[in-house]
Design goal:
Layout lengths: L1 H14 L37 E4 L11 E2 L4 E2 L7 E9 L9 E4 L9 E10 L6 E2 L2 E6 L18 E2 L13 E8 L6 E6 L8 E2 L10 E13 L10 E4 L5 E3 L8 E4 L5 E4 L3 E3 L5 E9 L2 E12 L3 H10 E4 L6 E6 L8 E7 L4 E6 L3 E3 L6 E9 L2 E10 L1
């Protein structure tokens, strides 16, 4: 009886991680693996397709130990705890051959509620390939139906923004997203739910010799209720000639409408790439958990090289920001300040104030809102900074 009680306490300590609805999120053992195909050693995880593997520090077998495993062919420290699982989301042993991992959540998801979902993967470099489409699916029942080979046709509910090929063999790569539930979900499945033709595969990432498969370790899976955004929107700077920049939180599952400076809808997406020809303000209108959030993002276009941007930001200081009626300007390493001129424009580019350089600038004539202060030296633009008039 004492041993049963201890075992129950062990399971409770494993499963009750904050509000995480994933039992055994870091694949800790219920029985120590004796070979690398013992996924049932970390219940309640199971492999509904293929034979995913299990690795733990408790194992003395070189095929299933940690950090060395797979007969000393792989070395990986766990992301969390003492263990992780391994699987082949892609292989060409047969047409569309796959492996996945599944388990039942502690509780069903609640209708119209939002959940923050995270899991971590790293390419084990056992085979020469890497690919995209590594995703998590929510379902009301375990899905084992296949259409061709071992491909499971399930929606990709959670995947890395942009769905890139994941090739890092050293660092655990976070796959994160937001999911809005319909109230029927009680299972999660992690794998590649697309067929070979719909998967981007790099066959020569780690050499060019068979077998042509990709093997990934997985750890630290979480599904947690969320109703307060933790992400932020940041202004950024773009140099003329630079490639487009990504703005937005870039978290899959977010419902964000993007508008340009004329309030024209651009698209609905977690993040967008932009390359404006001049300093531009974008607006992100986000519906989340019954609340609408509106954020403005300023992309400042600078007529200079990227290496000069951080230096210029240090040279020109503006405070306080936000300001009420007066701005203080601090200029470093520019001696002939009589050649300096200041222009302030609104978000539509209309000039609202022009003045010679002063250490204290009166902005009391401006309405409350967002503006851009541009500093010119001998009629050449040096830098543009966003200011807020309160």
């Amino acid at each position: 009886m004492k041993y049963i009680y201890t075992y129950v306490l062990l399971l409770l300590s494993i499963y009750n991680t904050a509000q995480n609805l994933v039992p055994n999120p870091s694949f800790e053992y219920t029985s120590c693996p004796v070979t690398f195909s013992s996924i049932n050693g970390c219940l309640p995880w199971t492999g509904t397709i293929g034979t995913p593997d299990y690795y733990n520090t408790c194992s003395s077998n070189t095929s299933s130990s940690v950090p060395k495993n797979f007969l000393d062919m792989n070395y990986q420290i766990p992301k969390t705890g003492n263990a992780y699982a391994g699987f082949e989301p892609f292989a060409i042993y047969g047409n569309n051959s796959r492996e996945n991992l599944s388990e039942q959540l502690i509780n069903n998801l609640i209708n119209n509620s939002y959940y923050l979902v995270r899991f971590y993967v790293v390419n084990a470099q056992l085979y020469p390939s890497a690919h995209n489409n590594i995703a998590l699916n929510f379902s009301s029942a375990l899905t084992t139906t296949v259409s061709a080979g071992n491909t499971v046709n399930l929606p990709m509910h959670i995947y890395k923004f942009g769905n890139p090929i994941i090739a890092d063999t050293l660092n655990w790569q976070e796959i994160m997203g937001i999911y809005k539930a319909n109230g029927t979900e009680q299972y999660i499945t992690i794998g590649n739910f697309k067929d070979d033709a719909s998967t981007n595969i790099d066959f020569t990432r780690f050499g060019n010799s068979p077998p042509f498969a990709a093997y990934y370790m997985i750890d630290d899976v979480s599904v947690e209720p969320i109703c307060t955004p933790f992400w932020s929107y940041r202004d950024t700077t773009l140099a003329i000639g630079q490639d487009s920049v990504l703005i937005g939180p870039a978290i899959t599952g977010l419902n964000i409408n993007w508008y340009d400076a004329t309030n024209t809808l651009i698209t609905n997406a977690p993040g967008i790439y932009v390359k404006p020809a001049q300093t531009t303000t974008y607006t992100a209108v986000e519906d989340f958990c019954g609340t609408t959030y509106t954020n403005t993002i300023v992309v400042t276009v600078q007529p200079t090289g990227l290496r000069d941007l951080s230096y210029l930001n240090e040279v020109v200081g503006v405070s306080p920001n936000p300001a009420h009626n007066e701005l203080k300007l601090a200029i470093k390493n520019i001696k002939d300040t009589e050649q300096l001129m200041i222009k302030i424009t609104d978000v539509l580019g209309k000039e609202v104030l022009i003045a010679d350089y002063k250490e204290q600038l009166d902005i009391s004539v401006l309405e409350k809102g967002v503006y851009f202060l541009s500093l010119y030296h001998d009629k050449q633009l040096i830098i543009t900074k966003k200011i807020i008039k309160e």
